[in-house]
Write a sequence for this structure.
């Protein structure tokens, strides 16, 4: 697997915090704009289509899992 | 509205009765190849076949060259093909040569690209030329070739597959008649009636956005570049394109809303204010206005028995990328030499299957590229629009953002993964790999300057060995052309560009197919290796 999912930050809390803070005070639309730009900047930095595809698959699986769980709870 | 300016080219042709029309039953005329549709693809294919010595019947249901706004951008590859057909100079003399594209976001330039940033090529990246000029010059060439029998107002109304060919029923102003053909090539456009007659599907994606094309006549000092705007001040929220054609005609392409009313939008009084806002003045006349939606689709198979499809009849793309007419011309150059070999029984009919393999892969590539461009111009979902916006804004200050902006990726020849190629065995650091088209380069011969593409034509546009000399000439079989660069009596690579573009060392040799694609390459060619590569490239094993 080319995508690294082990913890890469010395301080993961700082990284998470940096992203959260970037969104503070933004409307949902502004946040979505920010995320779109951020994803593109980071994707280019990675610069590896296979890694990007794995990252998309990993992220998307979680989204789908979450919506499936939601559906099951509703049933 | 003014008619398109066709004064410099003959566009009206007459129906003439042909003796085939008096034959019926067992006496029906037999032809090796009938090409249906005298557009750029059908005309070019017929010329290529005729130059290879084939007799061709070319049918067209009209008796005139269509005017109006159709293809305008013809690629370097198409010009190189037309050079082989003897019409390249005329096209380039009339055409507007260009290689630079500029992308604007709002009112400001975002970035520019050069499609041919290096010297030493005979032909430019592109010319713009109204399709009716291209067709008129091709018809002139057809008229010089006695092998081609061009029949206007001959409309195929039925076809029937037979074991050894196709029976065609043709309607004319004087009634119907039949001919038999060993092969039929359908170059009859996006609404191909032959495609319906063979019962083939034509699946793909329809785009909802509407685009308005206006060809306007004006004198303007804009450079001969392709200008593309996202969200311009004169057309807020949508995209726009401006491009120069000959005769002071400018192509303007404006994206409209999906729900725009096509009848109202087409009215000159409604188009005029838009163009005035774009140009900043009203000193122009309309040559043409039309509205279109487009589709990206292709036939599953380009060959149905002995009926072969080429150009728009086989595949359709969005116009952003100049991939319509150019890919049709690539179909024609790909098919002509193969069909010639099969008709001469030099190669088995299976060679034609590689036309389907190579050109349907190219169609997929063209559809992929033009779909991406279209999606970028007309984002489907809100999040897609958001990502597009992020790219456009990142493009203002990052290189990667500029590269992601997609205002049309312009046609380049496909590289074929094909059974006709012999895989590389030697080490290469560059140069065209097997399946790629031959790069051009300047060379000198006997005091005169020339280009590799021209030397290839003089070698007969056949299988040709391009050899970088190291003493003795390679041993090539009869019927194979030879181009020697360097060495005694060879072409002089004065600027070193041929050597560089082919990653050449003394002894390097490329086997070129009759369409100028690389079939195989060798660091040191031996006769057995060359024979094997030739057999493979001719579909003999």
């Amino acid at each position: 697997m080319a995508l690294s999912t082990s913890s890469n930050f010395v301080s993961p809390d700082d990284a998470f915090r940096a992203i959260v803070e970037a969104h503070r005070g933004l409307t949902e639309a502004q946040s979505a704009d920010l995320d779109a730009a951020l994803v593109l900047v980071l994707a280019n930095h990675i610069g590896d289509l296979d890694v990007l595809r794995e990252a998309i698959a990993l992220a998307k699986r979680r989204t789908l899992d979450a919506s499936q769980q939601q559906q099951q709870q509703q049933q | 509205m003014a008619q398109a300016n066709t004064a410099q080219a003959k566009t009206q042709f007459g129906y003439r009765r042909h003796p085939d029309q008096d034959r019926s039953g067992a006496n029906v005329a037999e032809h090796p190849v009938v090409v249906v549709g005298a557009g750029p693809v059908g005309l070019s294919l017929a010329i290529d076949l005729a130059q290879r010595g084939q007799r061709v019947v070319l049918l067209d249901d009209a008796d005139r060259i269509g005017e109006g706004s159709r293809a305008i951008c013809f690629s370097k590859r198409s010009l190189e093909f037309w050079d082989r057909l003897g019409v390249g100079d005329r096209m380039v003399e009339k055409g507007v040569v260009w290689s630079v594209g500029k992308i604007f976001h709002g009112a400001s330039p975002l970035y520019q690209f050069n499609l041919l940033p290096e010297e030493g090529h005979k032909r430019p990246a592109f010319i713009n030329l109204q399709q009716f000029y291209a067709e008129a010059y091709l018809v002139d060439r057809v008229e010089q070739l006695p092998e081609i029998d061009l029949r206007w107002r001959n409309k195929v109304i039925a076809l029937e597959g037979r074991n050894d060919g196709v029976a065609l029923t043709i309607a004319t102003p004087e009634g119907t008649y039949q001919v038999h053909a060993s092969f039929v090539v359908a170059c009859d456009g996006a609404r191909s009636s032959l495609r319906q007659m063979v019962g083939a599907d034509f699946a793909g994606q329809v785009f909802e956005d509407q685009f308005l094309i206006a060809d306007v006549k004006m004198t303007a000092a804009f450079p001969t570049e392709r200008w593309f705007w996202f969200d311009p001040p004169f057309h807020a929220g949508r995209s726009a394109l401006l491009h120069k054609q000959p005769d002071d005609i400018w192509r303007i392409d404006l994206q409209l809303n999906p729900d725009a009313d096509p009848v109202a939008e087409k009215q000159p009084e409604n188009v005029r204010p838009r163009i005035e806002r774009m140009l900043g003045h009203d000193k122009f006349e309309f040559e043409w206005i039309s509205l279109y939606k487009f589709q990206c689709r292709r036939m599953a198979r380009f060959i149905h028995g002995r009926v072969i499809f080429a150009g728009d009849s086989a595949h359709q793309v969005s116009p952003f990328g100049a991939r319509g007419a150019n890919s049709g011309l690539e179909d024609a150059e790909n098919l002509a030499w193969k069909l010639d070999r099969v008709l001469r029984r030099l190669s088995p009919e299976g060679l034609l299957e590689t036309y389907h393999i190579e050109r349907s892969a190219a169609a997929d590539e063209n559809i992929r590229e033009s779909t991406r461009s279209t999606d970028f111009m007309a984002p489907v979902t809100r999040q897609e629009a958001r990502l597009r916006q992020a790219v456009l804004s990142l493009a203002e200050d990052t290189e990667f953002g500029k590269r992601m902006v997609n205002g049309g990726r312009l046609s380049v020849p496909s590289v074929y993964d094909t059974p006709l190629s012999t895989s590389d065995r030697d080490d290469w650091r560059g140069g065209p790999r097997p399946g790629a088209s031959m790069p051009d380069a300047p060379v000198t011969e006997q005091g005169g300057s020339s280009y590799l593409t021209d030397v290839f034509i003089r070698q007969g546009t056949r299988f040709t060995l391009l050899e970088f000399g190291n003493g003795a000439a390679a041993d090539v079989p009869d019927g194979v052309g030879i181009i020697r660069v360097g060495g005694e009596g060879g072409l002089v690579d004065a600027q070193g560009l041929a050597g560089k573009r082919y990653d050449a060392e003394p002894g390097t040799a490329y086997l070129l197919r009759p369409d100028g694609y690389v079939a195989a390459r060798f660091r040191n060619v031996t006769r057995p290796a060359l024979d094997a590569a030739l057999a493979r490239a001719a579909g003999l094993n």
In short: Chain A has a mean pLDDT of 91. DSSP finds three helices and no strands in chain A. Residues 12-74 of chain A form one domain. The two ends of chain A are 36 Å apart (CA to CA).
